[in-house]
Amino acid sequence: MKEIRKKVLNQFSSARIILLGFIIMIFLGASILTLPISSRNGDFTPFIDALFTATSASCVTGLIVYDTATHWSLFGKIIIIAMIQCGGLGVVTMITVFTQVAGKKIGLRDRATLQSALSAPQIGGIVKLTSFIFKGTIIIEMIGALLMFPSFMKDFGVTKGIYYSIFHSISAFCNAGFDLMGDVSKFSSLTKYQSDVMINISIMLLILIGGLGFLIWKDMINYKFDMKRYSTQTKMVLVMSVVLVIFPSVLFFFTEFSSLEIKTRILSSVFQAVTPRTAGFNTIDYTKFSDNGIAMTIILMLIGGGSGSTAGGIKMSTVFILVATMCSVLKQDKEVAVFKKRIEPDIIKNAVAVFVLDIVLFVAGSMIISGIEGFSLKETMFECASAVATVGLTLGITPHLGIISKILLICMMYIGRVGGITLIFAAVTPKNNGNARYPKEQVAVG
After folding, report:
1. Using CA atoms, how far apart are residues 233 and 339, in angstroms rounded to an integer?
2. I need a labelling partner for 77 at 20 to 30 A (CA). Which of 20, 290, 357, 430 fits?
3. Is the separation of the CB atoms in 288 and 324 below 8 Å?
4. Is the pTM of this model over 0.70?
5. What CA–CA distance (Å, rounded) separates 329 from 391?
6. Are 237 and 318 in contact (CB under 8 A)?
7. What is the rounded CA–CA span in Å between residue 91 and residue 85?
8. How far apart are alpha carbons 151 and 148 in whole angstroms?
9. 72 - beta bridge partners?
10. pLDDT tens-digit profile of 251-296?
11. CA 70 to CA 387: how far, in whole Å?
């Protein structure tokens, strides 16, 4: 019996465990959300809609078919925020935390799975890293809640203010984009707080911190401002973060919000530059954005955040490596180097694979849903970029989609969260060709 059990367990690689963990959480959450206790009016919720919501929460996306505040009961909202927290930190991370609390030992196999889930460079110290991530997350989310509490208390009272502060802090840090503002106006997100400095800054900081990546936190805490000692990964992510906040903010400031007063114009510009990576909150109506603004937002959504973070997307380090590869080709360098460190060919191949997989999903999904539903390609491209990059922004078409389109978006959200490469690694057994190599061939490119 033990041998059979061992043989079965050996079939589950780290990638398969991660995939299965998210599937179990999604279907368990959907089963609970479909029950009358989860809806405000006490009715059953159609399973496809409950499944869509559970996937969106677990994969920290934020696309919704029902307004969160008005459709779900308090119990339903607690289930949603619990899935957001587990999905943001990762199912494997949460299981490890509970295992530690129970006083059980973490085996070598579990440590290897954790390493894969967190994109950690080595297995040594992985349990301590998990503990650091969990404690850091709780502290950051509580600070975020405290910063937002005065504004929410003023509008909703003390009790509701505490509840709103905690919910939105978790949702922002996990880059989920779920909100409770439907009682003010359905599907309104944070448009009510467009001019509120504290809400804007708190949400943006939570999004950015959650989207950096857990290993980047550790570098910044260990080495403070001694940036020379930062890892190449940390340097890439920080440089990309600065560029992807400043450039779009300037663009939006001069092209989208000229009618607003200066304070609100600055806040709106910066917020709309930060939220597509990949949080899904918004303080403006995206249907009023220009085509250039929509295009920039789609690009930001697809890029996403840092590897091993709560954010989705192609990832900043992936894009950085692709750009560095292009520059090395143009300069006719023999190797790709970043911050005076050589990038191995296997890493470049992985970056290309991630980029191509996400772009194919994005384009194919956009065309299929546009053909099925009759929406413009601009609307479906925005929707599919939001799904595959686990963002949650929309031009308002999500509640009007049919079953096939919802299933497609569910698949894209799931793949976007677990990663296309992880999915393929789980499905395909690696080949061992020994030392055999194919003969070279010259192929024209460009």
Report:
1. 10
2. 20
3. no
4. yes
5. 32
6. no
7. 9
8. 6
9. 39
10. 999 999 988 999 999 999 999 999 998 888 999 999 889 999 999 9
11. 23
